[in-house]
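Minutes, methods subgroup
Present: GH (chair), OT, SY

1. OT presented the first of two proteins processed in the latest run. Sequence and structure tokens recorded below as shown on screen.
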Amino acid sequence: MTVQRGRWTMEDRAEQIMRSVPVEVPPGTAALTVELAYDRTHGVLDLGCEGPDGFRGWSGGARDRYTITPGWATPGYLRGELEPGVWQVLLRLHRVPPAGLDFIVTATTSDKTTPEPPTSEQPPVTARGPRRELPAVEGKKWLAGDLHSHTVHSDGILTVPELAALAVERGLDFLAVTDHNTVSHHPELAAAGRHYGIDLIPGQEVTTDRGHANAWGPIGWVDFRRPVDEWVAAVEHDGGILSINHPLGGDCAWRQPVTHRPRHAEIWHSGWFDRTWGAPLAWADAWRPDVIPVGGSDFHRPGNDGLPGNPTTWVLADDGDVVGALKAGRVAINAGPAEALLVRFGDELLALDADGTVLIRPDGSRVVIRGDRVTIPAGDGLHLLETATTEVLALCL
């Protein structure tokens, strides 16, 4: 057992927010357990792990203990052989008070594998929520989904199967699982998706104290400690998509410097409580002229953020290729799977369940929608559906 005590100060945080505590892992180690203790009423220390061969996990402020073994690991961490050498307990000094913050890191190694904690039972396959009947376009289908959600692999409370079951019950066709700064959930997605009948998109929310971004696709771990331009390059190299998250989201608003601005941005987040407030749309206009807007619930737990599908991102996908549709910008967003909807069919838009609303074209011209299923000529760019009081109901490129 190794015990290291110390105190982090505001000066430490100002000098370098990411810190590490070294831990020696001897040959033959079958389990490593790390515990972090500090006064949570006065500050926040984020927790993670790096081995001699690279990243092994992250739990941020959601946990104060983790175990890694060859056969299993605490959610958020990567199971596998524990290579001998110096490991690093990663600590991000997220909040440090003026008086400083005392901490204790306790690391225990064992040549015997620690028993795996019991797992929760998988929920039964639930009845799917109703689907919207939308015609196909040149063999492509509109699919309903959500691009931002969390599980026990970061700061959510549901397992991957529990989240999949909830998303199906909500009537979604796909769901991106975007746990913070980790990919430990990725190995579980395919089997859970097949079991519950939903496409679970591998994702990760690259999380810093100056902004968050989602990375989607079967890509490698994105090192959140590096500059944002390196995130962009790494995700593009691996064939994924990087999207700026909730850019006006309170203390996690986007404030990161970046030279090559990603085209995708989470314009509609569950935190957009008052959709007569046009700031997210104004931000999108300022970000780049060809921005591709997306939506995300940022689901963590019932009663917090939105439920999966609030808002709903719709993609016009070829053979279920959600990531390909996102790259192409075949995207629409609305408040929920059954809410007023605006989607594109070639040179026309289809407004569903939007009687009495106003369509705003990219050039600013307006058309009043009369009827529950109305087609309107489409222009190039972002179209909006609004109420008479300027509440945004739907977006469509």
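2. SY then presented the second protein from the same run.
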Amino acid sequence: MNGQKRADIKSGIDVKIVLKEHQRCGTLTEGTVQRILTNSSTHPHGIKVKLTSGEVGRVKEIL
């Protein structure tokens, strides 16, 4: 699943995100969603979330 729909993402699920500084190279970071930051129901680049580790990025894959 890609991370473009807010309804697919809940706190506590495992995801892979791309951090702002890794958008060009596409390096993914794996973690657990702490909080959803995007308010709109969809976003073409992925829903922005904050992981339990404190990292913020856009969801590219739901595990």
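Chair's summary of item 2: The chain has a mean pLDDT of 95.
Next meeting: continue with the remaining queue.
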